[in-house]
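thread: overnight batch results

M.L. [08:02]
morning all. the overnight job finished for the chain we discussed friday. pasting input first so we're all looking at the same thing
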Amino acid sequence: MICYKYYCFNSKGNQQDGYINCSGLSDAKRILRRRGLYLHKSYSAELESEGLLGRLRFLQSISIADRANALWQLASLLNAHVPITTALDHLADSLKNKKLQRIFSLISKDVCNGSTLSEAFAKHSCFGETMPHLIASGEESGTLSTVLQRSAKMMFYTSKLSSKVMSILAYPFFLFSIILIFSAVLLTFIVPKMCEIFIENGVELPALTQFLLDLSKGLKTYWPLIFIGPAAFYAFIRWRCQQQRCLRILSAIFFRIPVVGTVFHLSSILRFSRGMALMLSGGTMLPEAILAVSKTVRNILMQDALMRVHAQLCKGVSLTEAMKQEKQFPALLVCMLATGEKSGNLEYSLEQASLIYEEQLEGRIAVATAMLEPIVMLMMGIMVGILVFALVLPMAKMAKLGAVK
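M.L. [08:03]
and the structure it wrote out:
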């Protein structure tokens, strides 16, 4: 859900403004028309909090660590019995992230105007869709500081998990970039000069050498495509991924990759188990917790599975019976949740499952890192070997012609 700031006109021509939570701009227009309002302009409430520069999408990102730090500070201030408005004002002045400062200043303003903290947080999508539900449960139960601390710990762990998963691709990507730069330098400067020497000495270029020479000429002629091509391909993939069907197909292919796919699948399982444990500890009902966590899991296949589980729960089916029908959830997780359901301590079972899958994920990351490094080195050796072999062949022919003469 996205919170929009809207400006409308009613049937009498009077202007009205306010906030509305909906899935998109078209949904907002439809809801406002039902209220007899005609939309004049609207934009995300989060963009309003970030000012003019915040309307640029690439300037909107706020790191998970910054959000976790803000929530942790807010929880610490509330534990020290500081009034909530004072705590929010302190965060608005002391945070290093300018965007978070603006957001907390708006939250403080909303709270001073009579809104609850959960309602104020709901207007800013940067904290995710689960955070307002957790804050609302903490406000009702009187454990707001505890909920904020647990949420901050969850965000810190998510940041750490993302760093671990992305570390698998960082070193191979660096080596692959070195390969491309080295190959481009050879093709641009070394191969043409060597080929000129061979041609001047009457050596007929082998097919592989001629192919590299043609490739070198193509790079010199169409060098802008080196930068435009990858950018266009990335934009095309992003555009296709916005279409749900294509995204599901790509996800299914990606998660079947032997080592890397397993790592990302385990990270999704870990996000699910920790997110569910956090939601249930905050007093959220099971169906609502499943629905909220499904929007935070990045694996679209697991999102679909969780939506089907939510539908089954609404029909009265137990959690474990619903999860058994989905291939996205491993048997060990289902078995542990079955034990938690029978004992009435599902939150404890989820926490134990997250510990197990955390160890499995760390082991898979170590294996993936150990396997990817030699694979990339092998690719580097093959590419360099092809370049060297393409230059050695005509050199051997030239030496043979010299010996004959």
